[in-house]
Amino acid sequence: MKMSVVVPTYNLGSYVKGLLANLAKQTVDFELWLVDDGSTDETVIRLNRFVEGNPNFHVVQLEHQGVSVARNYGLRHATGDGIVFIDGDDLIASNFVEILEQGLDQGAVMAVVGYEWYRRPAVQTDSFVELDQKSMFDQVSHHGTEVGGYVWNKAFRTSAIKAANLTFDESLHLAEDYLFTATFVAHTPGKYVYLSRVLYTKRNRPDSTLHKANRQDRNEENHVFDQIYSLQKFIE
């Protein structure tokens, strides 16, 4: 199975160096799309140096339009059987892509691994457990669950994304990943697998979108979760 990794970046400074080092150590080959959202610092210079000599690695710089525009660009251009989204300031284990690939190889429409961000799985295991569609929706449609509604600790089967005609909502500033994930699950019956081992570390960057959110953004997020809860009717 061919895997595509999509990484949006924007003015990440030195943070991006950690992820690039992790990507260089992955234990399987993969296609990489580094999609920069109009950075004005040295982020793109670092990205271009990193991809030199690897025809499977690509850098694209867009005008500054937001993370969803960057992810959608990667989504349109990815050619893999599975798609993995990673935030450019985070860290991944050396077998992150390989393990997600193994999950999809088991016939799953989505594979998930454990993450560390304020919390970590209570018990870490070395084998996937299977979840049905309803159980997965319960996990991805609420804050604070072990699986989470984020896109960055998951691999999605590309054919299932296309079948759901799914893209990221480019009008949103927060919770766009929750909406993408929950919509995918609500419209995609099939096998879901989860490995409760921490292979993804979310880093807290002081100037991230999450930390700069204002009251209007939080109200927008509440509206998004109302949309998410309404999706439950598709699987009950």
Structure description:
The chain is of the alpha/beta class and 236 residues long. 34% of the residues lie in helices and 20% in strands. It is built from eight helices and nine strands. Strands 1, 2, 3, 4, 5, 6, 7, 8 and 9 form a nine-stranded mixed sheet that branches. α5 (133-140) packs antiparallel against α7 (176-186) and α7 runs parallel beside α8.
End-to-end separation in angstroms reads: 32 Å
Percent of residues in helices comes to 25-40%
Query: How would you classify the helix and strand content by structural class?
Result: alpha/beta
Strand content: 15-25%
Number of strands: 9
Mean of pLDDT: 94
Identify the overall geometry: globular
| DSSP summary: helix tally | 8
Uncertain segments: none
Largest sheet: 9 strands, mixed
Helix-strand pattern: EHEHEHEEHEEHEHHEH
Radius of gyration: 17 Å
